[in-house]
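User: Modeling request: complex.
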Amino acid sequence: MEERIIEESEKYRGRIIRVKEYKVVLSNGREAKREVVHHPGAVAILPIDKNGSVFFVKQYRLPARKVLLEIPAGKLDKNEKPEDCAIRELEEEIGYIPKKLCLIHAFFPSPGISDEILYLFEASDLEKTKENPDEDEYLEIITLKRDEIKKALLEGNFEDSKTLIAVYYYLYSRGN
Amino acid sequence: MEERIIEESEKYRGRIIRVKEYKVVLSNGREAKREVVHHPGAVAILPIDKNGSVFFVKQYRLPARKVLLEIPAGKLDKNEKPEDCAIRELEEEIGYIPKKLCLIHAFFPSPGISDEILYLFEASDLEKTKENPDEDEYLEIITLKRDEIKKALLEGNFEDSKTLIAVYYYLYSRGN
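Assistant: Request completed. Predicted assembly structure:
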């Protein structure tokens, strides 16, 4: 099934992504072209407090042209470990440090076009470190209880892949 | 929270994606730059047979540099309705037409960087139309029962966002 790369050329280099075009040979010997978005990878955090409530953030997403209700997330800095990134982003976005952090899934959000990997963590035993998280983050923090999360899911209020996976994991792993 | 676009320029135009850079004004009046991957959108289908088993496909994904176990999916053709695309892709990939098709979620796989929307459908009342689906699709069809899906999820065999969402939906909506 593998595709063998016989040519590649970089077409775009931005601050975050690069785009390359590849010429590949398929298993039947035919050639094909591929466009790939290279991305540094990211983390997302499902932060659960001692009562079982979850912290979400609302923020404007230019690609979506709207405000989305998401779990906290952020891109990996160069050479940064996913765990360190998760702790940094959680504190930056909601002002808490987790004493417990556990990887739920590592997945490709869009494997047909991008090499982005997203590391999704469950964070618990949360300890408050800042009264007011970074104002530069331009986001609003929302805390939802289990029933509110079920309702928001049914009403279609979660509209991005990492948040849907995190919410289903949360509901599924804690029984119906 | 909204970001107002004051400048945009196209940096790459491929067969599938385009990349644009935007200059935006934030709510506090400061300016920022954004890189956005424009994508035609896609569908994914959770095909459930009369015994409750699910069809998956295995295929090589160049961006991921590996073979992934996914639900059937494909990009929207120009002006194609998501429902029509779901029916077309399902027949192309597994050789079945669904008599029942229902939208589960429409979501952004990667809302920080791309405007791609993925429409996820549940397909049932499946009717076989082809003995051997397109050989050009380069994929292997796998059918998994509920218990096998639970096991594959725990073992980390689902590695992309649409498949994880579909599998959690399937397990969650049918009880633990």
